[in-house]
Amino acid sequence: MFGLSPFEMMVIGVIAVVLFGGNLPDVARKAGGIYREFRSRLNEVQREFRAAEYEATKALNPYESSKVEPDDDEEPSEPAAPKFTPPS
């Protein structure tokens, strides 16, 4: 995990216990809350960028969304144009 060996993680854990002692659960709870808030804000920004990108592509090609895709359940219909037959 994060390129750390189990020994290195254990050393970090011991240092955390020495520094924070009995407050370690509160510190971990606060760090988790900060991380959760950061992720929610980051997701919000990503959602706004995706919406802007969608609007930009829609503005570039307005006919893209008007294409009618056939349903998988329906059988394909015959083409409107006749088939090409080469001259003999």
UniProtKB/TrEMBL annotation:
Region (Disordered): 60-88
Keywords: Membrane, Protein transport, Translocation, Transmembrane, Transmembrane helix, Transport
Pfam family, one: TatA_B_E
Topology within the bilayer: Single-pass membrane protein
Record's subcellular location: Membrane
GO cellular component, one term: membrane
Annotated InterPro entries: TatA/B/E
GO biological process, one term: protein transport
The name this protein goes by in its record: Twin arginine translocase protein A
Organism: Stieleria neptunia
Source species taxonomy: Bacteria, Pseudomonadati, Planctomycetota, Planctomycetia, Pirellulales
